[in-house]
Amino acid sequence: MAQTVFAPWEDPEEKPLIEFRNVTKRFGEFVAIDDLSLAIYSKEFFALLGPSGCGKTTMMRMLAGFEDPSEGAILLDGRDISGVPPNRRAVNMMFQSYALFPHLSVWDNIAFGLKREGQPKDKIAARVDEMLRLTRLNKFATRKPHQISGGQRQRVALARSLAKAPKLLLLDEPLGALDRKLREETQFELMDIQEKTGTTFVIVTHDQEEAMTVASRVAVMDEGRIVQVATPSVIYEAPISVYVADFIGDVNLVRGTARARPETPSVAAEAVAGPTAPEPAAAAAVAPNLAAPEQTASERSAAEAALPVDPRAPQPNALGEWLHDKVLFPILGRRKPQQKLLPAPSPQERATSDRPQTAPPRDAAQAKPAPAHADDPDALAGGGIVIDWAEGQPPVIATNGDAALDGKPVVLALRPEKVSIGKAALDMPNTLRGKVIDIAYLGNISTYHVQLADGSMIKAQTANTRRLSRRDITWEDEVWVGFSATAGVVLEE
Ligand SMILES: Nc1ncnc2c1ncn2[C@@H]1O[C@H](COP(=O)(O)OP(=O)(O)O)[C@@H](O)[C@H]1O
Ligand SMILES: [Mg+2]
Hints:
The chain is of the alpha+beta class.
């Protein structure tokens, strides 16, 4: 879609269509909008997203002219519009209730505003026909609102709002009355119509998926303020705060204390070892192949966390395990856990995938070949931080963390689809042991809720690309979850 290159907000020459300049709106003592500044550009599909009561409708009403700011200014095309009545603004607002006239036909509903303007008859007819075509309502022109479906009524309201060719169309929860499937279809229709007409749309929604689907940019609001304005993928991949990360989509929040990591990987490996992790264990977590054969029990468990396991190696049966654990372990060393649970993959399976299963990125435009965490060139890069998140556990490595956070409490925001899960240790910079507590199976995606050593939960997602997964992870299974050193976003608490 054209939106891959459409980015007027990045062009310093570009003048915004709408500008909020330090706008505050009070209702009595109550501050509904708090010193808010924002620029929206022509042809944008802009979404205001936030919980109920955060001030979205108030912003729309100020744009439409139903409310005036208590302080600050709102500019349309560079001109202050305070004092300009609603019907004199090149702005139209489509209400959630649609407010169609029940006694008028679809055709007359769409023509209503044009007739009131006193436009010539043939011009009105041409415009209404154009709007009927745009919203695919030609067949229903003579029907009354009660004779058409909810989705069609929504399109009549849209056609009526667009008939006067406003520069700016405001849509306040426009799809709220539609059921989920119709809602999704209508989202694409809205995008299509927005693109065809070139009208600037500002949509209010409390549905984050809807905002992510339709919008060129999303503003995440909280209590009368804008917390972050960015494209959907930036909001999703690089939220600036825990609030945004938590509000948009599903996220793991790993809380801990940051420690700076030196710039050179070899030194970094040593520095990983801190009060909570013995040195060789940490070294192993960074560079699996360095794990020494002579180890203490605690070192071993951490080293095992990082060692790639060959799933095709011969495995002991139950009796062999018992014998090993009870009798032979002083000679052979402790048995590596879990290997028995992983059957050797068939040749076909090996051809399809030899990697930990990971869900594809949500944004199809960003779709790449299967993410190759293990070969990730910067997976073991130096610098960044480690996060001590639980006593006795190897710290989490985040090479994208800011070393200046050293000593501070931080939160690693980690999307579930960036967390791999396996029955054997994963060859990844971060690999943690846990137990499967719950599985949410959604047809195309499974989400595993894994309890870690400190009792906290982490969600890992796999895309169910094959009908039967060879890894077949189930409730109560001991598993490994893993993620790259850049999979998460490090945020300050
Ligand atoms: N006319 C009004 N008088 C008093 N308080 C109002 C008025 N309109 C909105 N508010 C308050 O302002 C806050 C923001 O409301 P609103 O913009 O409707 O939120 P949203 O659309 O995000 O759910 C709410 O707390 C609401 O109660
Ligand atoms: Mg509202």
